[in-house]
Amino acid sequence: MSPVLLFSVVIGYFLILLAVAWYTGKNSDNHSFFIGNKNSNWMLVAFGMVGTSLSGVTFVSVPGAVAKESFAYLQITIGYLIGYLMIAYVLLPLYYRLNLTSIYNYLSKRLGHRSYKTGSSFFILSRVLGATARLYLVVNILQEAILNSFNIPFWATTLIILVMILLYTFEGGVKTIVYTDTLQTTCMLAGLVICVFYILNQMNMGFGESLQVMSGKGYSKIFFSDPNSRFFFLKQIIAGAFITVTMTGMDQEMMQKNISVKTLKDSQKNVVSMAIVLSAVIIIFLFLGGLLYLYADTLNVTVTGDKIFPTLALEHMPPYVSIIFIIALISALFPSADGAITALTSTFCIDILGIQRRTDLSQAAQKKIRQKVHLSFAAIFLLFVLVFKWIDDPSMIGLILKIAAYTYGPLLGLFTFGILTKKAVKDQWVPYVCIAAPAICFFLDKYQKMIFGSFEIGLELLIINGALTFTGLLLIAEKKPATAEALA
Question: What is the pTM of this model?
């Protein structure tokens, strides 16, 4: 496949995004940048959030993991559905009742200023690490497929892509992203479906026959019953629910789009409908993973993991499929990166710098600060993508979930404590509790064989982290209850 043609496709796709950004970003201000003037269409938000939730890692790593993990990811997906219901009917009513721009303002009202800053800081850390890991995976594929042919170094490729993202998010923010995510999700899903039908056609198989062959090779097993295994179904379902609650419901990037919808009822419809569509899409990804390995066997291709889909699509399929793959891949890349930079800008400006609370700053001054922060996060993304290039982990989805377990655990503990108890805390001690909990988890994870024997800690590390944070908050709780205003 000609690298020049693929590069032209990438540029053409970006120009379309830029046109959408120009149209939607006209006359935008800080309010539209942060929450889209609370006027986003819930159906567009729901569909676009499918792309944000999946990202390039899902597009490449979920199919690639089928050889080792079969369809075990469906266990986590069941947990996702439970988690989205919790978001829709527990967290969203809270956020709308308090009329939040940043969801971490809840921690300020409920627990105190340092709790608020701690929650915001953990979100920033988690989103920077998670988003740059996702970005690295896709940039690395584009580098090997296209940019190496032009002798463009990896750092320059990353810089070019980040500049592209900045160009279409710099003015419009959430208002623009709602529309660009919808376009990108459409392209990604179209690419997924086309690849499935192409492989089925090449192997002269129907859906039923292909599932039978997958089953014979052990690719289609869903439920794992060994309690000691990290794939044990109860572990995976419970962990999936908590992953969703934290990585979506307690994540400013994801909830920023939800609370940009005008009414609570529409926002709830957005979350529930997104959960259903997302589950269906993950099933297709897993099915595609099985097909990729069956197809690789017929071609005597031995690559596995994250490399199997790019290798087959770019080297063993006709040019039109390669183009569709590249379009789908960058469609998976942009939603996870553009939303992350925008959400990080919002959180840092609102929660850390407090620009909306400063009466000495005009709208123009606030906008200038916001733009400088936006550029700064793009530079930070460049740095961390280069760090992940140096690490070069063979399965990025496992690394991303591990990062989430360490960094979202304190957020889980903070929000759960605030919602389930009526206690106040010694606010000055909260940062130490939130640092101690992941430190203990690191020790448990590193020495788990010595401590637990054959029992494996998997994704439930997130729950352990949250429970440790919750326990620590109980230990520093005040004797007097929180005020009625804080509990409102």
Answer: 0.77
